[in-house]
Design a protein that fits this description.
This protein is α/β, with parallel strands linked by helices and about 240 residues long. About 35% of the residues lie in helices and about 25% in strands. The strands form three sheets. Strands 1, 4, 5, 6, 7, 10, 11 and 12 form an eight-stranded mixed β-sheet that branches. Strands 2-3 form a two-stranded antiparallel ribbon. Helix 7 packs across helix 8. The structure holds cytidine-5'-triphosphate and magnesium ion. Cytidine-5'-triphosphate binds next to helix 4.
Length: about 240
């Protein structure tokens, strides 16, 4: 028992980095795209560690794995590897499959974050907000930002305005009690259901999703223009 007090259960982040990056169309896998010479994956893991993550599980393609391992050779926290799946949701599930064995009560209560490697510029204080909210008792935590564009919804014969004041854009890292995340993915796999993110998975099994403040800096590098923004952020000393 005393051991538990001296060694609190580590906070783990599952970093999904196994996508093809088709919209970015880069010369290397998206997670390895350098910004000012440093790969997105390297940056993302450093920021997670700075925000309080103790270990990471990186989900990466099997092919070309060496380059991913190289990118994290100097990582500030221990790294475990898992193989990518067909959809992001499968990649997350593979990551959960290699989480460390813990006594049942510890495993259920462990704080697990799920993060897109492509969101490489997440501020450390945003990571800490997510971890704190799970520690405070939330089952599922999502960082969000207001929507700045006006939004219209397509309907059968045209489109209709949506009140953007009521909308929030969802980012990562999302945070969960490990027991919740495992149960959500188990239920989804059983029912062959695909959802767009892990908060939606938790909601699918009836959990309440708690929102915390996200950050514009945690944008997802998705299209070529995002690379320009990323380089500019670093040049301006934001990250
Ligand atoms: N991802 C993953 N496994 C998949 C699909 C996506 O691990 N089968 C990861 C990506 O590596 C990325 C994150 O999920 O870090 C968010 O996905 P997205 O931004 O869509 O990245 P890609 O799927 O790689 O890009 P695209 O959709 O343009 O091909
Ligand atoms: Mg994708």
């Amino acid at each position: 028992m005393g051991e538990h007090i001296n060694n609190p259960v580590p906070v783990v982040a599952i970093v999904v980095a196994a996508g093809s990056g088709s919209r970015l169309g880069a010369e290397v896998p998206k997670a390895l795209v350098p910004v000012a010479g440093v790969p997105l994956l390297t940056r993302a893991v450093a920021q997670l560690a700075a925000g309080g993550v103790d270990e990471v599980v990186v989900v990466a393609p099997v092919e070309g794995r060496e380059a991913f391992v190289d990118a994290l050779a100097g990582a500030p926290v221990p790294v475990t590897w898992a193989d990518g799946g067909a959809e992001r949701q499968h990649s997350v599930a593979h990551g959960m499959g290699v989480l460390p064995d813990l006594p049942a009560a510890d495993a259920d209560a462990q704080v697990v974050l799920v993060h897109d490697a492509a969101r490489a510029f997440l501020p450390a204080d945003m990571v800490a907000r997510v971890i704190d909210a799970v520690r405070a008792g939330a089952d599922a935590v999502v960082p969000v930002v207001p929507v700045t564009d006006s939004v219209r919804e397509l309907v059968e014969d045209g489109s209709t305005v949506v009140d953007r004041a009521r909308l929030r854009a969802v980012q990562t890292p999302q945070g969960f009690r490990r027991g919740v995340l495992e149960e959500a993915h188990r239920v989804l796999a059983e029912s062959d259901t695909i959802v767009t993110d892990d908060a939606a998975a938790a909601e699918y099994i009836g959990c309440t999703v708690t929102l915390v403040e996200g950050s514009r800096d945690a944008f997802k590098v998705t299209e070529p223009l995002d690379r320009v923004l990323a380089e500019a952020l670093v040049a301006w000393g934001v990250s």
